[in-house]
Amino acid sequence: MKTLNIGLIGYGFMGRAHSNAFRKAPNFFKLPYQPVLKAACGRDEAKVAAFATQWGYESFETDWRKLIARQDIDLVDIACPNDLHREIAMAAAKAGKMVTCEKPLSMDGAEGLKMVAAIEKAGVPNMVWYNYRRVPAVTLAKQLIEEGRLGRIFHYRAKFLQDWTISADLPQGGAGLWRLDVNVAGSGVTGDLLAHCIDTALWLNGPIQTVNAMTETFVKQRKHSLTGKVEKVGIDDACAFLARFQNGSLATFESTRYARGHKALYTFEINGEHASIAWDLHDLHRLQYFDHRDEGRVRGWRNLHITDGDHPYMDKWWVPGLQIGYEHSFVHQFADFVQGLGEGTPASPTFREALATQYVCDAVLKSGSTQRWQKVKQVQDKK
Ligand code: SOE
User: How far, in Å, from the CA of 160 to the mean position of ligand 1?
Assistant: First the structure.
């Protein structure tokens, strides 16, 4: 079997999630290529060496340019902070490597557009890790919508709530806390959390045309871990926005890192003419479904346990009734990518598809600062 030699850049939370996917996918899916964990790359030599050993990478590098220059790397996987995505992705594409990139694609839409141009000029396979699309319950929601079961869509409602930055003593910047540093993250909850909600929404419900947002930074100054100085906080701590979809439906989106008691509560609900669906990341193996066409006496919300062989991806795992979790969404996404290489079909979202999410984030942030409705720039189809 042909091999797919992977070079991973970044060994934090996402480096682990991706590595786990690279290792598990060939065990559970029949893939046309055998993934090989060739090299892990990170700036701290001791840490990247320990990571490479723990996860079974054959080697390590401390300079991403060296990793990209290596002849034995086919796929460059970007799992490092957002401010490095553009430079690495463009250099990797130029070197003819396939590129997979952790979300969000870029710091903003302008950067994302350059990345799309570079990747498409090089003609290399590419994908952005919006993993929640591959939670079987969410994929099933997509199938139900495509089958027309919901009918005309009226409402889309999404939230992503966390509570880990409430303490004003938490510094910004550096390992683990770069998400609080606007120069590294690009934005706060909009790019980090709402980007997930937006990606899922665009996939399930089509393009968003206009948005009206409010954003807030509750803690205005924080010590910076790298400079040691107290510095202005530039990220949005919370963001809520209204949106109008091209299909005529209305939406509300909300995200915060200040919802005490919520660790990663991503939920969405879609209300259609005939039926509604609802999903909750804390109960990710279930899909709530209400169908008005059911016989009245037994009509009600159905609590579907997504563990059966005819549910998306589930025939690859255990026996019916036994559920899977968060990590599997990454395994599925990687398996889809490798299957796509074999079939010559891109795995979604490609860089171009993920650019649409950046444009919505741009419009949301602009609306937050201008206090006005903003039109969302649309991504053109590939020529
Ligand atoms: C932030 O805490 C975070 O880790 C995001 O960066 C991830 O994308 C999200 O899936 C979980 O929360």
Answer: 10
Amino acid symbol at 82: N
Atom of ligand 1 nearest to the CA of 103: 8
Q: What's the Cα-to-Cα distance from 104 to each of 196, 212, 287, 337, rounded to whole Å? A: 8, 21, 26, 18
Q: Which amino acid is at 108?
A: D
Residue 276: what residue type?
S
Q: For the chain, how many residues are written?
A: 383
* Under 8 Å between Cβ of 185 and 81: yes
In this prediction the pTM is 0.98
Residues with Cβ within 6 A of ligand 1? Answer: 162, 192, 196, 264
352: left (phi over 0), alpha (psi -120 to 50) or beta: alpha
* pLDDT, tens digit (0-9, with 9 covering 90-100), for 150-174: 999 999 999 999 999 999 999 999 9
For CA atoms 22, 25, 27, 29, the dihedral sign is negative
Output the CA 290–ligand 1 centroid distance in Å.
Answer: 29
The residue behind tokens 């479904």 is 289
Domains and CATH numbers, the chain: 2-131 (3.40.50.720), 133-370 (3.30.360.10)
Instruction: For a ligand 1 pocket test, name from 178, 179, 192, 267 the mutation site with the most ligand atoms within 8 angstroms of its C-beta.
Output: 192
